[in-house]
Design brief:
By secondary structure, the protein is mainly alpha-helical. It is built from eight helices and two strands, in the order H-H-H-H-H-H-E-H-H-E. Residues 52-117 form the Transposase Tc1-like domain.
Length: 166
């Protein structure tokens, strides 16, 4: 294309690439007689394809499995970010499990009836009710909360539901 069009800018416009990329490709062609990428470029792999599939399978079988447990089961010295990357490639994200199913119209109706029945209460009646506003403070990096691996849209899957809701 360079010999046909003449300028790097015109070739870059035709192939929808930057001028720099076209220039580098032309230099490599002139130097080596090929434009193929060099073999071995990129980071070296620490896991095999089979180990990658095993990492994903463990998260699918037990959504509450931790990265350290997966690393111990695979038996390869890898960092937790590698495990997270493999799970993200399989479209699995680490999420907090929900505590309860959302309110149904029946639940909303019952709550409204409860409020309407107590709409005429005075201050002494309301003093018998306990309200709580707990906040959670975490000083370290680990909050000791259970997390689950799931794909988008799998929020109400039965394996991630608390035992009392299933």
């Amino acid at each position: 294309m360079k010999t046909a069009f003449g300028s790097t800018r015109r070739v870059a416009g035709q192939v929808d690439r930057s001028e720099c990329a076209v220039r580098n490709c032309w230099k490599q062609w002139a130097r080596e007689g090929t434009q193929a990428r060099k073999t071995g470029s990129g980071a070296t792999r620490n896991t095999t394809r089979r180990e990658d599939r095993r990492i994903v399978r463990q998260a699918l079988v037990d959504p509450t499995v931790t990265r350290s447990t997966i690393r111990a089961d695979v038996g390869v010295a890898i960092v937790p970010q590698t495990i997270s990357r493999h799970l993200a490639e399989a479209n699995l994200k680490s999420k907090r499990p929900f505590r309860a199913l959302p309110l149904t119209p029946k639940h909303r109706q019952l709550r409204l009836q409860w409020c309407q029945a107590r709409s005429m209460w005075n201050v002494t009646d309301w003093q018998k009710i306990v309200f709580s506003d707990k906040s959670r403070y975490v000083w370290g990096t680990d909050d000791n909360r259970v997390r689950v691996w799931r794909r988008p849209g799998e929020r109400y899957n039965s394996p991630t539901l608390p035992a009392q809701l299933v």
